[in-house]
Protein 1
Amino acid sequence: MTELLAVITITLLAVISPGPDFAMVTRNSLLLSRRAGVLTALGIGLGVLVHVAYTLLGLGLLIQQSLWLFNVIKLAGAAYLVYLGLKMLRSQPVGDAPEAAAAPLSDRAALRTGFLTNALNPKTTVFMVSLFLQVVQPQTPLAVQLGYGAFISLAHIAWFSLVALCFSAGAVRGRLLAARHWIDRAFGGLLVGFGVLLALSRGSR
């Protein structure tokens, strides 16, 4: 029971902390649609399962011990965030019509964006490996560990779906869509900032 409570508490604190996942879901919900935001949240949850899988297979320990491998993951994640951010920074005004639509995003693209944003995030790597090495006991049955992984994934989906619902609400979107290109640029700047900080961070894990 103590282990379960620790997993739940640490997961919830990690999920609600601001980061690239939050920025991406907020941006897609606010500027595109509720559907795009929720699918991005679903993609994030699926990305979490990647971290769960390699951690349970024992590869998480390898990543933690291998500086070069960790740095490869870190730089890949940083490059992806900078790439997304630069695309948003190039956003241009779409005219004076407040209801002019932003560039559409297919369901698959929204899902893929959320998935890659999380799967390439080394912060999630550190969180998952640390959680399973320091909190979850070695004698914990595999079925229970799989349950922990499912809970962590579902917690991400639930939280970021809630974020998507809030930021896609009509009252919020109606006031902000007129300045959508500035909002897009602001989120682009955030993602570039996350990527640069990630790339420049030292190899501490």
Protein 2
Amino acid sequence: MQHKAPKQKTRVILIHGLHQTPWIMRPLAKRLQAAGFDTHQYGYRSMRDGIKTNSARLNSWLETNHHLDHPIDLVGHSLGGLIIRDFVAQYPKWKIGRCVTLGTPHIGSICADYIWRLTPVVVGRSYVDALDGTVALLPKHVTLGVIAGNRPYGLGQLFLQYHNRKLRKSDKPPLNEQLVHDGTVYIEETKIESAADHIVMPVSHTGMLVNPEVAEQTRYFLEHGRFKR
């Protein structure tokens, strides 16, 4: 089914997550292109550089390749969503349309906490000021949509299953819905009060990047500022 393109062709910057490359965002980019969006897959060094450096490089790329007066939308997967948070806070000169994050741990990542304590080299410089939950606050003028997954498939599930067992044995065990995750990130970690909308979909942390329904919800939010119900 063909979708009507936005009235003003908007450039969408897609930002991958930890240990990934821009190519992993290609399936989503192609579906957004089919809906009339101009896309760019921003690549960065998630291990070697911290979030501030990667935000600065995105700003530099835009200064060279994008006009300040033209709006941009931003879509980020996992850590990429935290780069969006930092970028829009640090560089308010850009005209930000709408933003969508996919499986992003907005309040910090318990999975990353475990890895940081055991083998910090695995998360590199992306832990501090990002995955540790201390990323910049979302500016009030930014319209953010959050997509979370509830299919627990992925390497991170080993840590989260262990964490869930600990929580269930605690004096105040959490509700079952508070233990649901996508294999890497808890649904509860994706929630942020300043978001315009939040939706949970039957996908895993990485699987959401190739899921056509996730792409459709992303498109719909970019065009309408809310998810399709």
Protein 3
Amino acid sequence: MSSLEQLREVLGVPPGAVCGSDFGAVEGSLGVGLPPDVKGMCYLYGDTLISDFIFVLGPEFIAEQSLWVSELVREGHPVIAKAVLPDAGGMLHWGHSVDGDKFFLEHRGGSHWTVSAFRRDWADWYESDETLIDWLIGDFTGRVAQEWMPEWPAAHWFEAGR
């Protein structure tokens, strides 16, 4: 079973995959090719709020939100000290929480990208060695980020939008 299938098993049926959306335009505006697993996850759960806590960016909002966060960093964000795409060598901003946490993927070479986050309530920077899908599975099953993520419900629900 692939990681994406495992994520679907944990979260449940996606709210409405956006398979018709074009990631080519997103990649062009960000100036980077995104890993297939990231695009797959964004097609299934992107542009959706999951269980009233994590909003996963997808083809509709990911470039716009990444540009906004990259401007915050250029203006001197006190904790996010690393560049954000579309800035050269930047991280991919892939989502946020209702608490104001910002989630990123850092390119570690080749096709390897790992999850990092600005934790707003903690006013610090979090780094993991996990890929996006593995981190999400770990989060939703309670294996990772236990100290700052909510206790997740047995069944998840979804809300489309920002």
Protein 4
Amino acid sequence: MEDHLAALAEAARRTRESAPKITAWGRHLAGVFEAGGKLLACGNGGSAAEAQHLTGELVGRFRHERRALPAIALHADTSATTAIVNDYGDHEIFARQVHAHGRPGDVLVCLSTSGSSQNVVAAAKAAHELGVTTWALTGPAPNPLAALCDDAVTVEAPTVATVQEMHLALVHGLCAALDDALGVTA
């Protein structure tokens, strides 16, 4: 346990330098929502849980009351995802939904601890075709997803668990920055 907490503290120390980037993402996202756009999010396994956590904070609320914000976790529609896997293959599970829901000016947040998940990389490529801004939260760099996206925060950590825990902290940081940009107060 002590080793795990020490690794988490070290990852947090390293990731702290990303705070200005996450603040900028929050400001950008506020503008997207004010213009009528939406956020899409995708990931596999634990990263899917983080994607859904992010969209839940936006559709619901983070710390304070505010209007519901349009956000979709692309893995959460089981009927669509299973139909896409059946008809197009698992590599298209998110890309097909990006084509359905994404519009120019929207944001796609891609989460991947490896940064090499084929279906998440395919979603980022689909987003670029549509003019959707792409942000990645990944594990250590370099990786294909971070290189492909418009912007990325890479977490240098020794285990997938620590990367995922840092992703949750970054998701909460993005929500706080967004609420600040929207002028949401207690």
